[in-house]
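User: New here, any thoughts?
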Amino acid sequence: MYAVAVVAFPRFPGHNGRAMTRGEAVKRVAELSRLLLKYQHAYHVLDRPLVCDREYDRLFDELVRLETEHPDLSLPDSPTRRVGSDLTQELPEVPHTLPVLSLDKAYSDAEVAAWVQKTARNAGEQLAFVCEEKIDGSSIVLYYKRGVLARAVTRGNGLVGNDVTANVKTIGAVPLRLAKDATLAARGEIFLPLGRFAAVNAGMAEPYANPRNLAAGTLRRVKSREAAAVPLDIFVYEGFFTPPAATHREALERLAALGFRLNPAAGWFSDAGDHEAVLRAHPTWTVGKLADIGAFLAAERERRPSLEHEIDGIVIKVDELAVRERLGATGHHPRWEIAYKFESPEGVTTVTAIEVQVGRTGRITPVARVEPVRISGATISNVTLHNQDYVDLLELAVGDKVAVSRRGDVIPAVERVLEKNEDGNATWRMPASCPSCGRPLEKQGAHHFCGNFDCPDQVRGRLSFFVARGQMDIAGIGPETVEALVSRDLVRDVEDLYTFDPDALLEVPGFGEKKIAQIRQGIEASRKQPFRVVLPSLGIPEIGGKVAELLIEAGWGDIDRLNTLADAGTSDPLLEIHGIGERTASVLLQELASPRMHRRVERLKAAGLMFREAPRRPAKGLPQTFSDQSWCVTGSFERFQPREKAMEDVVKRGGKVVSSVSAKTTHLLAGEGAGSKLAKARGLGVTVVTEAEFLHLLGRD
């Protein structure tokens, strides 16, 4: 590594012994910058040093000296930015100009193969797939303007991230100036190689648990000189150009030509195309047919322990960018990309029973009840079995001894059968009829469904979803109330919540006048929920809070306008909204066009629910007192009912509103009954504001 030392030197003389003129200084700074950037790129990206450390240091020190004498000549892409600064920097939140979504996940070769087949089927054509190592580091988006690094932003919540430009500039493998004056965005993963991690950790009083934590913590240092002391690295894996590339391979080739560091380990798989041409362009890649993807995953599992960087899986993505646009994304993940995750911690237990659950959409999910087992600090007693095909693959029966994992360290799953039961129990079979209403089950694709929309369990599911926190948040209506309403036929669907008489519950044990009053108040308050809450609460697949926000901010926050599109059967206007894919738009309009959903919406409109909302904009004339602040809200309030009214005041004054508390949240408005969000905010040091304090900030006290 270059030994960079910043020292004081006497005034640099010109070639004839005189002091350098300003014109000469300008030319010399430009020449030194060009040379040093070239040498940095060769060392950090190409791994081919062009000069010895001594020569590099001599030139570097000369540039430092000239920039010290002529501060105005120090450019944004100056090589001296690599050493950082002692100045304290804030980490403001800035919006992304491209979607930075999470990934859907697979945990077996079979799941990957099924996803590849489904994706090709949905695309309606033969596809190629690129497989890349999923680096266990910290995601970053690099924004370049006319060839110069303008901003580096963490992933954040996918819409907004932290500006860590000063720290990222200290990373030698990040180009400060590109080979061409291109304007683009590039996604990458910042990480710390294992050898460097061991060296840095050896000098720590309190060693970091793993390289990923150290990399993420370094990116958020408040002094960039501290970040420069940690030898971070980067692999860039996505480029967003204008005009766009035709394939992911082409985008990677453009990135490499511009000077970005790419991971040489990757795979390209297709049943068509010129495999030899791909291999010539990418000689370090694995190239093969779609059937070879499983072998590639196995090879990566084998070589994982020998890698100099940590990986936690493989990312499989569609190569053709036009197909990606057609496939689109959900509110959570792209449909053209999936992460294959390596094995999770396992435990051994015995299946004691297998039951089925009926979801709010009618989907039937088998669930294994197992003898409680501890895995990664959690006690597991219930494990999802997904569908009959999954059970058949395992040949699973009650009484079998099984290996159970916490997939992604969260979702419990049966991985394999270790010992068959000695009771003669055969492989479990899905019941022929719905356990809730008795209607014969129908198989659609890999899953079974109950087609009875009035099935009691489906009604319970829809009601529970509608009234839950994060949806309509109707106080007083929890699981016990939902059960009482459905079992006594007081409510047959969500719209009945606004017409039934709560006094009818007085006959039910545990429901007194105080409880009834709370239910009435909760129902009444829910009428004031904004459209961005009402629309996702309808339970339409694919439509969550993020999609609702995209629709509203694009001017489609009116159910009547959406119904017009649904009646016309055209989704083209919605596809123009960045972040909304073809499937999302199609599902939304199909559901709105159904007579059942149309009746529900009309009855809810008659009940006074909000089905129209204008885009949130800072208000003209109001002081932007919440500018650069990120607010979340929890609990209930006397002056703000519903509580989203308070967040409207935040937006009017220039603030941003987020749905959950994170390290990037600056303020939490906490009312009565604040729960986990308040505890998390206090743990993260987020400023907690009471209703009285908030009113004071608004000038309304």
Summary: The mean pLDDT is 85. The chain has six domains: 22-83, 104-341, 346-449, 456-526, 531-606, 630-698. DSSP finds 24 helices and 23 strands in the chain. Residues 196 and 231 are 7 Å apart (CA to CA).
